[in-house]
Design brief:
The complex is a heterotrimer of chains A (about 300), B (about 325) and C (about 325).
Chain A: H1 2-8, H2 11-17, H3 20-37, H4 39-42, H5 85-121, H6 123-138, H7 141-176, H8 178-193, H9 196-204, H10 208-216, H11 221-244, H12 256-264, H13 273-299
Helix pairs in contact in A: 3-5, 3-13, 5-6, 5-7, 5-8, 5-11, 5-12, 6-8, 7-11, 8-11, 9-10, 11-12, 11-13, 12-13
Chain B: E1 8-18, E2 23-34, E3 39-43, H1 50-57, E4 65-74, E5 77-78, H2 84-90, E6 95-98, H3 112-123, H4 128-141, H5 147-151, H6 160-172, E7 178-182, H7 190-207, E8 210-215, H8 218-224, E9 227-232, E10 235-241, H9 242-247, H10 252-259, H11 299-303, E11 309-311, E12 314-316
Parallel strand pairs in B: 3-8, 3-9, 6-7, 7-8
Antiparallel strand pairs in B: 1-2, 1-4, 4-5, 9-10, 10-12, 11-12
Helix pairs in contact in B: 3-4, 4-6, 6-7
Chain C: E1 5-15, H1 20-23, E2 24-25, E3 31-32, E4 36-47, E5 52-56, H2 63-70, E6 78-83, E7 86-87, H3 97-102, E8 103-106, H4 120-131, H5 137-150, H6 167-179, E9 185-189, H7 197-214, E10 217-222, H8 225-231, E11 234-239, E12 242-248, H9 249-254, H10 259-266, H11 306-310, E13 316-317, E14 323-324, H12 327-331
Parallel strand pairs in C: 5-10, 5-11, 8-9, 9-10
Antiparallel strand pairs in C: 1-4, 1-6, 2-3, 6-7, 11-12, 12-14, 13-14
Helix pairs in contact in C: 4-5, 5-6
Classes of the chains: A mainly alpha (about 300), B alpha/beta (about 325), C alpha/beta (about 325).
Chain lengths: ~300, ~325, ~325
Amino acid sequence: MRFFKKITGSNLFYNFLRDPMAIGSATVLLFLIVASFGAPLFAPHNPYDQTTIDIMDAELPPIWTGAADADSRFLLGTDPQGRGMLSTMLYGMRVSVLIGVGAVVLQSLIGIIIGLIAGYKGGRLEALLMRLADVQLSFSTYMVAIFISAVFQGIFGMGVYSDYALGLLILVIGFAEWPQYARTVRASVMAEKNKEYVEAARVIGLPQWRIMFRHILPNTMTPVLVISTVQVANAIMSEAALSFIGLGMPPSQPSLGSLIKSGFDYIASGSWWISLFPGIALVVLILSINLLGDWLRDYLNPKLYKD
Amino acid sequence: MQKQEPLLSVRELSVAFKMRDCVLTAVDGVSFDLDRSQRLGLVGESGAGKSVTGFAIINLVSRPGYISGGQVFFEGRDLATFSEEEMRNIRGNRISMIFQDPMMTLNPVLTIGQQMIETLKAHRHISKHEAEKLALSKLQKVAIPSPEKRLTQYPHEFSGGMRQRIVIAIALLTSPSLIIADEPTTALDVTIQADIMELLLKLCEEEEMALLLITHDLAVVSQVAERIAVMYAGRIAELGSTEAIVNTPQHPYTQGLLKALPQKVERRKRLNQIPGNMPSLQERPPGCAFYDRCELRGEICHREIPRLEEKNGGLVACHMVKDAAGKEEK
Amino acid sequence: MSDFIEIKNLVKRFDISGGLLEEIRFKGGIHRKKTVVHALNGVSFGIKKGETVSVVGESGCGKSTLARCVIRIYRPESGEVLYNGTRVDNLSSSAIKPWRAKMQMVFQDPYASLNPRMTVYQTLLEPIRFHFPNVSRSEADDRVATVMKQVGVDPDWRKRYPHEFSGGQRQRISLARALAVKPEFIIADEPIAALDVSIQAQILNLFMDLQEEQGLTYLFISHDLSVVEHISNRVVVMYLGSLCEFAGTEQLYTDPKHPYTRALLSAIPRFGSEGFNHLRLPGDVPTPINLPTGCVFHGRCPHADERCRREVPALITAADGRVVACHGVEEGRLEWL
C-alpha cells in the first residue's frame, strides 16, 4: 500500500496522467501484452496443438467479409495451415515480445558491464572495449544474425533449428546490439565517477567492484531505462525482419514476422488478411513502445541520454 | 527641500511561481527606492528572492514565474505599462545587467568587438566606425590592456576576471542610468573580486550611474553600497544606510547574521549560529518568516506579517523592535 | 612536538593530452607531445596532532589536489606523506586499509557528496561494516545513531534519502560518514563554500566542537580567508601548485612576508570598511601547463628581479618557525615593507 502511494504521489505518475499520448500508448501496450501472454486463456484456439488444426480450414477469410467460405469459428480468418489468425497472432505476439525483452536483457547485461568497466577504469582498457564496440556496431545486426542463423540451419538442419530458434534469436539479437548500452553507460559513468560521493567511497577504501556496482551503477540507470524502450522495439523489429526472410522463427511456432512472411506468398492469390493483421499488430506494438519511450525520455532529463 | 523623484521605485512587488498544484510566492511585497547615482545592496541567503527581484525589475521573470503584484517605476514611469518593444529599449540601454556568469551575456561565437558594436547598433543610430571608437573607449575605461587587439578576440580567449570586465564594458556602452549586478564577483577569486568591485564602484561614481548590487556577501556589499536592504524569505527584513546596518542592525535576523561572520568574532571562538534553516517557499509560516529561528519572537509574530516601517532612522520589518523616537507602538 | 602528518615534497602532474591521436604533432616531423598540468610542484609542510592547518589559495592553485594526494585519491608522482611517522603514500590499496579508517575526508558540494540512491543509514553503515566487519548489527546501528547525534542530525531521519535534507544538513551527514570510522585526521575540502552564511557558522562551530571533543586533527582547504583566519592554528598559502608561505595564523595575518600573501590578504572583503585599498596584482594567473621559470609568482610580483625569473625559490624556515619561499625575503630585500 505504501509502495502504491509512493508511485501515485510521484512526479513521474503526475506527469504521466497529464500526457494523453503516454496514457494512450501505455493502455494499448498493456492491452497487447496482457492479450498475448494470456493467450492460452483468451485465444479461441491453440495453434501449437496439431490435433485441433485441420488443413481443410486453410486460408479462410475473416468472417465479416461475407465470403461463402468464411467460418464463424475464425474471426480474422485462417492462415495457410488452417490455424485461426486471431489465436496465432496472439501466440505470435507473445513470441515477438519474449524475443524483444530477452534480447534487451542480454544486451543490457553485456553492455552495462562493459560500459561500466570501460567508463570507470579508463585508459587502455577503455580504448580497447570501446573500439570493440565500434567494430561490433559496424556490422549490422541483420548481417550478424543472417550469418549465424544460416550457419546454424546449414549445420544442424531445420529440425534442430526449430527447437532452438527462440533462444538463438535472443542470443543473436542480444549480442549484436550491446554497444548501444555500453556507450550510454560509459558516458554516464564518466559523469558520475568524478562526483564527490564516489571519491568518498574511495576514501572509505571500498573495493573497486563495490564502488562500481553499489555506488555508480544505480546512478546510471536513468538513461539505461530510456534506451531500453527503444531497444525492445528495435529487437522486435529485428526479429520480425529475420523471420520475414526465413531466418527467424519457424512456421510451427510463428512470431509476428513469420506470420507476415507466411501470408506474403498468398497476397497475390487474394488472401490479404494473413499478412495484414500481423502487420498491423506489429506496427501498433512498436508504435506504442516507442511513444511511451519518447515520453519517458522527455520526462527524465534528456541531457543524460546523450552519448 | 522637495525630495527629488527616485530613479527607480519598487512598490509592493510580488513574484509568484505557478507549480504543479500550488502557487509559490518567491518575492512578497518588496518596496524600495533607488535615487540617481546611488548604490543599493540587496543581500540575502540563497532562496531569499533577491535575484528574482532583480529580474522582476526589468520584467524578465522566466516561466513558470510571473509578477503577481506591485509596480516598478523607472524614471517616474510605470514599467508595467510599457510594451515589450519599449521594455527592450529600457533593458540594455537605460538599465544594464551584469550576471554572475559572464557567459550569460557574452556570445561564445562572436568576437568582443562584434558583440559590442551589435549592442550599440541595437540601441543607437550610429556608424560602425563611431561604434568601434566608443567600444574602444569603454574597454579602456574597464582597464583592459591593448583594447584594439582585444576587440578581435573571442570570449574564450579571456580569463574569468577579464570576461567580467568586458561584460561591464558592454553594460557601460549605452551610458545607462542604472546597473543591476547580480552576484558579479561570486565566481571570481578574492584578488580579482576586489579589482572588479573597485572598478564597478569607481565607474558608478564617474559616470553617475545608480547600482543595484545583488549579493550574498555582506562584506562586499558593505564596501560598495551606500544603503543595504536585507532580504529574508521573499521580503525585506531591514533597509538602512550601510553605516546603520553595519553598526546598529535592528532586525534580529540581521543581528544574527552579522554575529555569524567570522570577522566579527574572536579567533577560535564559536560563531553565533542562527538555528535551523530559512523556510522554503512551500513552508512559509503565516506570520513573520523568521519566527521559527528568532530569539525575540512574541505572540503577535506568529499571527501577523510585520510591515516594513521606519524605526530609529531605518526601515525594519519586525514587531519586536521598538522605536526610540517614542512613536506609538501597537 | 613532532609532526603528526608530514607532507614532503609532494609533486602531482596530470596528463590531459587524451588519446594517442590527439598527442601527435606534425610540427617539424611527426612526434608525440604530451600536455601536462603541473598541479603540485614540491609542497612540504607538517601538521601537529590536534591542530587545524588550513590551505588557502585561489582557484587552480592545487589545494584540492593536495588534499586528494594526502588522502590517496590521487597517487602523487613523487614525494612522501607520513602518518605518525609511517609512510602511507606508497602502500598498496589493500595495505592502506587500516589507514583509511584513521584519515577521512569531507567534500565541498553537499549535493554531490552523498550517493542520491542510498539512505542516510546505508551511507553511514557502509564504512562501519567495511572497516569493522566484526561488530554486530546492533552495535553498528548504535554507532550510526551516535555519529548522527554528534553532528546534530536526528537519528530518526536515518531512513531518509539525501534529497530530503537541506544543504547544511547534508554537510552534517557527510561529516557523520567521515566520523563513523573513528578517524583521527580529517581533511575538509571547502566544506562550507556552498553554504549560506548562517549555515556556514553552524558547520564551522560543529567542526570546532568535534575537534575539542575528539581531539581531531584537521587539514582545512578553503578559499575564504576570513573563515581560515577564524578556525586555523597555522595556514599554508599556495600559488600555482607551489607553497608560498606557511606560518601561524596570527603571524601570517598580521605580518605576511611573501608578496603574494600580502596581496591576497589585502583583498579580503572587510565587513564595514568602505571602499578598497588592496594591493593590485598585474596580469592573470599563468596556466599550470606552461609553468613560468623560476618563482611561479614572478610575472605578477612587484618586487621580482632577475634571480626570481631564473631560480626557483627554496623554502626558508625562519627562527620563529615560519616558512617562506621568496628570494626577496631571503635576501632581506622585502623586510622593510
